[in-house]
Amino acid sequence: MTEKQYTVLVLCTGNSARSILGEVLFNNLGKGMFKAYSAGSHPAGQVNPGALEWLQQNGYSTSGLRSKSWDEFAAPGAPEFDFIFTVCDNAAGEACPLWPGKPASAHWGIPDPAQVAGDEARRAAFKKAAEQLARRIQLFLSLPIEKLDKLVLKEKLAEIGRIKD
User: What CATH number does residue 48 fall under?
Assistant: First the structure.
């Protein structure tokens, strides 16, 4: 691992479920290698209870989590990102703000667990979404990020996003 701490932004439309899971998982699995944030193009205004439930049941802190607009991270004084990941198809197709520093980006689409009907099925969907995100983050962590040129890194990030686990 490198001494550099990479900044990551995980985007989704509502910033209430998948992107929140991504933020927490990057910050925890990265063990200091990443400082992750999440945001949405049209934030829901609250974190989905299913995301909070999964995080709490799996020992992750939910303190300070909130649904926020990506405009917050396009404003002066916001962190400059090294990586940006979209985790929902809607956000991937939207025109994003121009991010300073030209971060590497990829689409890591995850089915929306919040759209699943029934309590048990929804819990299972949140578990699956979190497991998919965790697997992709772990694969990302295994890359020699500092040794890859931008084109190779972009392709590796896209490959990780195509994994259907």
Answer: 3.40.50.2300
Residue 65 near residue 47 (C-beta atoms within 8 A) = yes
- E strands, the chain, are 6-12, 34-40, 83-86, 104-107
Let me know if residue 138 belongs to a domain.
yes
**56: number of Cβ within 10 Å:** 11
**Mean pLDDT throughout 41-53?**
94
User: Which residues constitute the domain of residue 71?
Assistant: 6-162
What residues have CB less than 8 Å from 5, skipping those under 6 apart? 32, 33, 34, 35
What angle do helix axes 119-141 and 150-162 make, rounded to 10 degrees?
150
Q: Give the per-residue pLDDT at 152.
A: 93
Phi and psi at residue 87, to the nearest 5°:
-120, 0
**52-103 confidence digits (pLDDT tens):** 999 999 999 999 999 999 999 988 889 999 999 999 876 545 555 666 778 9
For the entire predicted model, the pTM comes to 0.91
pLDDT in tens, 13-27: 999 999 999 999 999
Report the number of distinct structural domains present in the chain. 1
- The answer to whether residue 38 sits within a structural domain is yes
